[in-house]
User: Fold this.
Amino acid sequence: MRKRTGILIITLIGLLAVIALWIFGIYGSRKFGVKAADKRLVAKIERGTESAPDFGSILFDGDPVAYDETTGTIFISQDMETSGWEGNLTATDGTLYFAKNNLLYHKAEAISGGQQFTLYKVKGDTYQKFKIVFSGMPIMAFDTWSEVGDEIWGGAFSLYDISQKGAEYQSTPCNFAVRGNGARAWEKKSYKLTLSDEKLSLCGLRKDDDWTVNALYDDIGSFRNATCYRLWNEISATNSVDGDNAPECAYVELLVDHEYRGLYLLCDRVDKKKTKVTGDDYLFKFQNFARDETDEKMLAAFSVEEPKEVSDDSEKKKAAKNIMLDFINSCDIRKPLTGTYEDLSKQVYLDNAADYFIYVHAISGNDNIYKNSYFGAINQGDDTYKFYELPWDMNATFGINGNYRYIDGSETVFDTWAYVGATLYKLDYEEFSKVLKERYEVLRATVLSEENIKGVARDYLDYIKNSGAEKRNYDKFPYYKPESVNIDYKELWDEEKFFNFVDERMPAMDEFMESVYEGIPQVPAELPVLGAKENNG
Assistant:
């Protein structure tokens, strides 16, 4: 009896195993709700008549897909934080099949390797053939309806971000325009994006209708802007200033009019919401903080960004610019300074001035001392203003100079003297050093530790690589061609150079700051100046 019972149990186990295998064979081979076709089925499909791909007939979770028309490639966003594939592919007509590929069972490897899968749509004896790529990043798309101005287009904006539950697919009318001055001539364009009908939270960032889409064309490694913005925001979170915030950002892959355009950095705008500018306050943007010749030229080097009603009114804008010009003149270290440390300390937020001084030295931000910064001017209620500074456009940092070459961290001269901090130091190094020392001790133990700096960069570098976007971006744009430079990306990019630079820079920074406290370094007679560029603001 016991023997029979044992045999029965074994038989039942075997039967259950067969059923499980049968179920797995039917359902386990499905990914995204699509059957996998083996070689025999593929051969059978391809004996039919092939027709041109109809991308509009392919849907992902019921929504249109992003695709590159030239290469016939569909792009699908996936969340790298989850172990399994997410979402379903369907066709408005016909049946979908994946050509069998073992990497369909290895999500992380398929995404990081940029694996192209083959997708068939079969209807009767005809078929269509698509390539399909799964990205670990959100996919953004612009589709042009009409040209509404010089390098400004009206059209549709779409964002596919499966990690944002409840907002996996967003689409709305928009305007998008090429942005940047010299960068307009580059092969890979940056854009200003304006949503026409509504404000949306994109990639988990704040809800807004005004965005910057940065091409990162001269951001060697594509991580410097993101890393520097995050470090500055970590710094500003620890000081007493309310509003000295840099952009928040998220990586996306972009398609424009069904052409793949590579890796981009989506950023919210530096505006009154971010900087807490209200009422009679102002926000100024500097293209070039140059003191090269005349006040007239200096006035052309910056714009009034907020309030908008002031920037659009010539008389009000002139009055606002003169407020900023008076402040700039008080910080002109190339001529005898007429004010005192006490005078200037009342015009600035000392925490911010110290933080910016420390920050640009630590990251070797040689392109952010005389340009590429914003100033908030906060009305104190008695027709006086108090100023703070924050950075933008951070590509020339961490050892990369303006000629797209590496500076050796151990030999770097500390010449990134931010104007406001340099002036305070020159007026009274003992008093300003007290502020510097207090802030540096806090920041060096936290935000500016080697561990934190490298950890922030590593987060972004791993994300760019593991999402598959790094390889696709390089395949599309293997060369940097800013101005007359024509440099292979792989000649410039070596991540170990960045990590070595940090390891060399920060101990050298410690020594530099100790000398600053003692008043040993002398502010250069002339800070680097690139002649003032016209700013249309």
About this structure: Confidence is low (pLDDT under 50) at residues 17-28, 528-537. The chain has three domains: 30-135, 139-266, 272-448+492-517. The chain is about 35% helix and 25% strand.
